[in-house]
Amino acid sequence: MALDSLTLYIVATMVAALLGVMLLFFGREQNIAALRWWGAAYVLGSVSVALWTVIGDRFGEVMPMLLSAVGLIASAMVWNAARVFHGKPPSLAGLVLGAVVWIASGMLLDPAAHTQRLTIGASLVVIYATLTAAQLWQERRASLQRRWPAVLVPALHGFVLMLPILLGHVLRDANGAFSTAWVTIFSIELVLYAVGTVFIIFMLVNERVVSAHKRAASIDPLTSLLNRRGFADACARLIEREAREGRPVTVLIFDIDHFKSINDRFGHPAGDEVLKLFATVVVNNLRITDLSGRIGGEEFAALLPCTLEEGVVAAERVREAFAASGIVCDEGPVDTTVSIGVAGGPAGTELEVLLAAADTALYKAKRTGRNRVETASELPLSLDRFRRQRAALSAPAQPDQLIAPT
Q: What is the pTM of this model?
């Protein structure tokens, strides 16, 4: 059964317009600028195709040329939408350059040179499709399994538009016009491209939203450092990476001295300021490759891909910087000191083992005067035994345990 090409163009136009309105609506509701760019591109493109279908060449060559220029601007808007989606500013020059080249070519070429003009127009759309695919490919943080449709769809659209240029003599009939079969295939491809692109857009937006929620679940809202869960996950990946290279790792545990008394004396707002100040000190005095997080109320931790000796130097740097950055409240100065426990291990040492050893060193620093750095003499042989010892030390003494045996 033969399909009427005019009907297919009308269907493609209506689908594109409907999808464009939907993207504009969701872009406004979710405050996503890229969706608004995509939606506006679809609406503008569908309007230009609809007018071109209805008007045709009734007003000579000028009107089809202008409507084609509008379609090229719509293609440029799709590329700009991909740029905005990845945090880049829209390219205003690129937005109109294709249309300018198209109008200039129409004015310079002979009106009978339909093949050359078609080649230029198709090439411009192919360039914009290629730029869109390249822009979507640049976000390499996503896995290839989720990213390949976003690149494949615009790439296939550009390939289809290249066919008249590559196989023009095959796709044309005896009169030089494109065959009905090719026009039908191209119309169907336009519908599939419109629907497929919107599917990919929502896939990318959903991926971005999920990533944002995951990040929010891993970040401490007060200090903007990793929380305990986020710190553990990030450390597991770093330890695995360092283990492949055979490099050691070191853990630092920080405990702000007398933090409860700071809250009691100066109030919780002052305590929050101390926590934020210490987080800033940690970030400023560790390397960008080091991981840091807030793992408790006033307890922080850091994982450094380095030896124990280098970790001690970093710990001393943090301690000195925090001690020198006191806060002054209305009630008086706030002492800003921290006790630090440091533990290092060979490549592949588990995070829990390093934390247990560093925690032991931290307790030693607090018992011997605070505002100091202590290192773990050895890693715990058994985490279960370590936990039992910690529980026994932290449990309140029973009345019968307060009486010395006779």
A: 0.55
